[in-house]
């Protein structure tokens, strides 16, 4: 059953930092359905509260003083690179208070299920839907987005990745039973995997441009490794149940993390795969796992379960969590699974909140915010919220530049950016 919508009238004023609005919404017409792109009102909630008891609150200094001081000390040799990086991160956190939704789109007749940023165009986004539709949207221009029509029911796009060897192409896995390479015109260039039965479909995907391999996982626990020419290297059942997420380490692309609803995350060395028992580490969880993704430097692993835990693991000891963040994001059948992701430049974690009355710290009429945590301390650093977009936000991804956030909320795609940038 779909969750009840919380009454807006009963939200406390303290939950909203400030409200801004803009007028004259724009409208676009994609192929399948009207695409609305508009400026909208927004508000921010900054919460310095900590979900880990006993941690001291972090004071975020004004951006100029932190950056200038850190740069000056680094130049004089008095500050190490980590200190400078921390100053830049604090400055970015300070700017998050002015982030708001400046573009909004509703192109699909079913909910959004996956999204990916273009690797070289910071304002271009690919979004897939439960009906198999894919939208390629450059929200920096006024031209109509590219819309690739799916098959409808049963065609859900479960993962999207741009092809780094040709950025006019992208990889997609789907419930249609294929993992394929397509171009922007919707042409299928290569089918990597195809199931012979409607009972098997593909739920996860990752690609390494350096090693030229594609890895994909299905709903019965198999993981398949292929080269980019389509040759299958191996096909093994690595989990007992659905493989919900796959991630190749960005710095050591022979290191693979797999997440499953069998309540485990496993880490593998692709050079030493001998069978289902040849994993390097098995990380047991208390609930099924939605995702496992490596940090941009490859040194940490972030996992999201289907109930109330976000975990951070470190390369120094993969089999023991470095930290555990209690966080409400429970799962149900008609909700795109909530997945926490890393910021591409800073040690920050971003994830959508789905308030749970059974969660220990749940407050009355708690908002469905986007939460930003410090990846080292697990401390809540900031929350983003727009009263006009108060649904459950399942997916959140910062673009490669790290200055724009894309979110998937049911049928809607939201793009967040700093107010000053939008006004320019």
Automatic annotation (TrEMBL):
UniProt xrefs under SUPFAM superfamilies: WD40 repeat-like (SSF50978)
Annotated coiled-coil segments of the chain: none
GO cellular component: cell junction; Cul4A-RING E3 ubiquitin ligase complex; Cul4B-RING E3 ubiquitin ligase complex; nucleoplasm; site of DNA damage
UniProtKB keywords: Acetylation, Chromosome, DNA damage, DNA repair, DNA-binding, Nucleus, Phosphoprotein, Repeat, Ubl conjugation, Ubl conjugation pathway, WD repeat
Gene3D superfamilies, alphabetized: 4.10.640.30, YVTN repeat-like/Quinoprotein amine dehydrogenase (2.130.10.10)
WD repeat intervals: 236-271
Keyword Electron transport included in the entry's annotation: no
Molecular function per GO: damaged DNA binding; protein-containing complex binding; ubiquitin-protein transferase activity
Taxonomic superkingdom: Eukaryota
Main subcellular localisation: nucleus
Pfam families, sorted: WD40
Pathway given in the UniProt record: Protein modification; protein ubiquitination
Localisation per UniProt entry: Chromosome; Nucleus
Chain segments carrying region Disordered: 1-44
Membership in a protein family: Belongs to the WD repeat DDB2/WDR76 family.
Cited PANTHER family: DAMAGE-SPECIFIC DNA BINDING PROTEIN 2, DNA DAMAGE-BINDING PROTEIN 2
UniProt-recorded name of the protein: DNA damage-binding protein 2
Lineage of the species this protein comes from: Eukaryota, Metazoa, Chordata, Craniata, Vertebrata
